[in-house]
Amino acid sequence: MSPVTLARDRWPGARQRLDASLKAGTFAAPATSSRPIQYPVGYFSVYFAHDHRLHPSEPAMPLHLIAHAFSARATLALLGSALLLAACSPAGNSSATQQAPSGPAVAVTPAKAGVAGQSWQTEAQVQAVRQSVLAAQIPAALLQWKVKPGDAIRAGQVLAVLDARDTLAQALRAQAGVQQAMAQAQDAETQLQRQRQLRQQGFVSSAALDTLEQQAKAAKAGVEAAKAAAAQAAVAQGHAQLTAPYDGFVLATHMEPGEVAAPGRPMLTVYAGDALRVTAFVPQSVSHTLDTQAAVTVTLADGSARSLEGARLIPGTDPTSQTRELRVDLPRDWKLLPGQAVQLRLGLQGQARAASAAMATPTGVLSVPAQAVLVRGELTAVYVLQGQQFVLRPVRLGAQEGGLRQVLAGLQAGEQVAIDPVKAGLAGARPAR
C-alpha cells in the first residue's frame, strides 16, 4: 500500500487536502514529529493525525521522487534491523563461545607449613585476674543505677538499688511473728508455774505437769524459729541493694532501670584493676617449641612494646580447638582495660632453634603471602579456591616474617589461596592457568 493510499484510508477527513496536494504536485507524509525530514531534493511537510492538518514546508517534492525516497528509507530501515538482529543472535558454535567476557585471572599459591624461626608471635587479649559478673539474689525490679561503666568502686559501695517493698513486708511479717511467738512462750511459762504450785498441793497429776512442760519448751523453740525467720527477712531486705565485692572498676552494665532482676541473671560486670594479664591460645603443635622461661615481648595497639617475665602455659589442651592457654601477668602501671588486643612474641626453645637453623624443619604452622590476607575492620580472611571459584574464609593470623604471614587457624595444608584478594573478590574471578 502506497503512502498516499494509507493516508487516505487512515485519515478520511484529510482526503480533500491530500487530493489537492497531489494535484499541485506536493505530498505531506504522515509522521509523529513536527520537524521536516530532509531529502536530497528538498523538504516536505508533516501530516498530524490529531488535527488532520497538513503543515506546509519548503519547495515540495514531486510525487515520483516521494515514492522513491520512502522506498529507499524503508529499505535502509529494514536493512539496519536485519543487521541488528544478526549481531544479537548467535551464529554457530564459534560466536556462542564469545559471550560476556569472564572475570580476571588470579594467581594462586598453596598454604605451606612455615619454617621455624627464632621467635613466634600471636594475638593476645587483656584479661582481669579478678573479674565478676554480679546478679541480684532476690527477684525485684531495678530502680536505679548508682554507677556507670568506667567508674571506680570501693568494696561495699552500693552499685544498684532494687525495689524492696516485698522484702520490707516480709521483714515486718517476720518481726510480728517473733512478737507472737514470745507471747505464746510467756503464756506457756506462766501456766507451767501455776501447775507446779498446784502439783505441790496435790491438785495436779504428774502427767498433766509433764504435758505443760513440753508445751513451754515448744513455745520457746517457736520463739527461736521466729527470730531466725526475722533474720532471714532482714538479710533479704539487705539484698535490695547491690554492693561491690572489692575495689575495682565497673566494666559493663547488662540491665536498664525498670527491668526485673532475678537470681542468676547478670546485672553488671566489675573487675579489680590492680591485677591484669594477657591470655593467648597457642596451637598444640607449637606449644612444645616455645621458651616460656625467656622474656616475652608485649606490643600494644599504639606500637609500644615492653619485655615481661613469667609466661606460663596452662596444663591441658582444649579438645575442640587443640590449643593451650598462655598467660602473662602485666605490671600495675600499665593502663589497660580487659578485652584490649595486644601482640605477644615468644622465643623458641634452644633445641627447636638449633633444629631450625640446621635442618630448617617445618613448624607445623601454615603460612601464606602477606598480600593474600584481606583485612576489613575486625575481619581477617583469605580467598580459597574451591572448584573454579574463590570463597572468602576467615582465618586467625600469627606472626609475619618477611613476606609470609602465619595462619594459626582456618586453613589446611595444600589449599590454594588467591595472592590478590581484591581481584579474587570480583565477579567471575578464576584461577590463572
3D structure, described in words:
The chain has 433 residues and is an alpha+beta fold. It folds into four domains: 86 residues, no CATH class; 83 residues, conserved putative lor/sdh protein from methanococcus maripaludis s2 fold (Beta Barrel); 84 residues, Elongation Factor Tu (Ef-tu), domain 3 (Beta Barrel); 132 residues, RNA polymerase II/Efflux pump adaptor protein, barrel-sandwich hybrid domain (OB fold (Dihydrolipoamide Acetyltransferase, E2P)), CATH 2.40.50. Helix content is 31%, strand content 33%. The chain contains nine helices and 31 strands. The protein has a seven-stranded antiparallel β-sheet. The protein has a four-stranded antiparallel β-sheet with strand order 8-24-29-28, with no helix packed on it. Strands 10-17-15-12 form a four-stranded antiparallel β-sheet, with no helix packed on it. Helix 5 runs antiparallel to helix 6. The longest helix is centred in the middle third of the chain and has 36 residues. The N terminus is likely disordered.
